[in-house]
Amino acid sequence: MAIISRLPGLLLLAAIAVPISAQVPADTMRRPGAADSVRSAVPDSAMTPMADQSRGVDAEVRAGLFDLIADRPLVALSRLEWLRGSPVALTTEAAPGAFLGRQDVLFLLAQSYYRLGMTESFTSVAQPLLGGAASARYASLLRLQLMIAAYRRGNFTQALTLAGSVEGNDRALASLVSGLANYSARNYQGARSAFEVARAAGGPYSGYARYMAALALMAGDTTQSQAAADELRALGTDTQGEIAAQANLTAARIAYQRGDFPAASNLAASVTAGDLAAPALLTRGWALYKSSQWDAAATAFRDFASRYPQLPERDEARLMAGQVLLQNGRIDEAGQYFQSIADSISSEVASLQSSASSTMAQTARALVAARAAGLLFVDDPASGKTLVLPDAIGDISALASAMGVTTQGSSTLAVAPALRVVSLRDVDARVNALGGQIGAGFPMRLMYLDVTATPERGGLTQRTQSLRQADVAVSIAQFRLQEALDAQVAKIALIQRLQQILAEERTRLEALGIRLAATRDTLARLSATIAENQASLKDLMRGSAESMRLLAAENQARLDSLRGSLGTVLAADDVAVLGIESQTANLYRQMAETVVANLDATFARHPVLRLQDSVRLHAERTQSLIAETQGLITSTSQILGEELTRLQGGESDQVRSMRSAVATAEGLRTAAETQLVSAVEGELRARSTQLLAIMRHDGEAAVFGAASASFFKAVGTTAGTARPPGGTGASEGGTAESTQLSVPATTQTTSSTPPSPR
Length: 758
Prior knowledge:
By secondary structure, the chain is mainly α. The chain has helices spanning about 5-15, 35-40, 55-70, 75-85, 100-115, 120-130, 140-155, 155-165, 170-185, 190-200, 205-220, 225-240, 240-255, 260-270, 275-290, 295-305, 315-325, 330-370, 395-400, 425-435, 455-565, 570-605, 605-650, 655-715, 735-740, and strands at about 385-390, 420. Helix 7 (about 140-155) runs antiparallel to helix 8 and helix 12 (about 225-240) packs antiparallel against helix 13.
């Protein structure tokens, strides 16, 4: 029975050795196959967007629209001109209703030109758009802007045609411009009809339209002067501010011309402050003079001469103050006063004659350099004869709506831009800002004297517009150059950052390589230990199995011997027990043989033994990838270093091209400046000639006044009886009688022309 007691230990060993493959986790049994390699080699196409020209153009156009809405017309113009001239963009029109296309680019380009004051470029781009069916959604805005541009150029026929096609909320402004165009063309009936439409529409143009309607009534029929005056008086009562002042001043001049001097004085006296105080004061002085209110008239004339020495009527007012002294019989005082005026005028004439050439040239250059040549286009600023409309006609929502874009929460410009009159204060501020840039001894009255003939003014306007175009071209070229420089700086910064990142990655890979080498050494030692332990385990298990087989054979031999020796003595139960023992010994023998036969396969399926090769291969591949990556980092660092050296060592081709473009644009601007300086100098010389004639005339009047005083003194004339035999040389009535109207803001019954919106 001792033999049987040893068998359970062998049975336990077999139970452990045979089912070893069943203990390997399922995830460790899977090795990367061919399918995995194919799957990892397929690129992710979702990360590479396909080129779409229509979407790209649409995005650029919308960016230009955003720049315009954000009041950055120069940035928008740079983008849109590039887009218009791109050789690959806008070759075909975008899909209808899907993306913004060429017509939209041209529309926004026109808006950029308009906001930058480039009238000629705006007209050349906007005019063809009116005929395209695709541009119908923004044709209304273009017609309004083209109408304003046509009126500014003096093309009243085109302005009337375009005004007739304007509809909707802009009809009031169109009617006003239509009335002004008709007024300029002396179609007073048509002007009145258009002004009545603008007046009925209400809004910011109603008061001015009512004012102009009264002027048109009087200009079309001089017998209606009283009706016009009554309407102007009513307007002055019903309104306030600038329109009321214009109405009262014009009514005062009409009353003066009709001989109602007290009414003229009272109406002019109501205009005591604001932009029309100068002409109102002079008109009141003449009305008081005609009313024989000598002292009050003298006070008004002296006040005008002292407060507004820059105006051409200064000497006229001074002479009239001397005339009042004679009227009052203050002979000695009048003689001295007239003599001082004559000496002052003589000195001014001599100064202007001696320095006219250099002074006019220097002043012309200063005006052009300060971009103030437009001051020469202001008609009689003291009387407010030039109107101003903002270049941004319409509001942001209208612009966006025309492009089919919805805006929310954006600030808007005025939907109906209010009219603004260029006042004396505006011109004074602009002239005074020139300071010492103008020529020494330059008579400021030249800036307020209007002698430019229409053909000459057209040439001056053309050269001014050319300089404006050149200024914008230089600004765009400089903007693009700055963009290129900023891009180069950004590229240098990016390369430096990439170099820093590569250096950090190189350091990290080196540390990783060191750790990987140490790990591989550890794995090598572990593999050797595993191999030794594997051999020892195999020998141990093979020895145990062989011992179990020998014991089973020994048990079987003993059972056979026992069965043979006992023979028939054995009972049936003993025979059965011996049979069981024999079967058990045989089973242990078979188990031992199975263990020996499957020992190598069993160890081969062990996870540690299976994965050590995979770990080794992964380590080798990782080492190879680290080496390859380090090589790529080295080559990339070299490329980046070379590019950084090139960028830091000099300008890129793009920057050099941009600098060349700036130089070319500046050359064209210099040429435009030279041409405009020549035109402005010619204009100033013409004005100086005219001013010299006026000053000589006023000087002669002053000399005549002094001589008259001497004559009256010699003949012993008493106070209050002195009457000069021929006046003072000033035009009787002054501005109230002699000044011709070029802007109906301060008109009279004489022939007039309407304002020029600028």
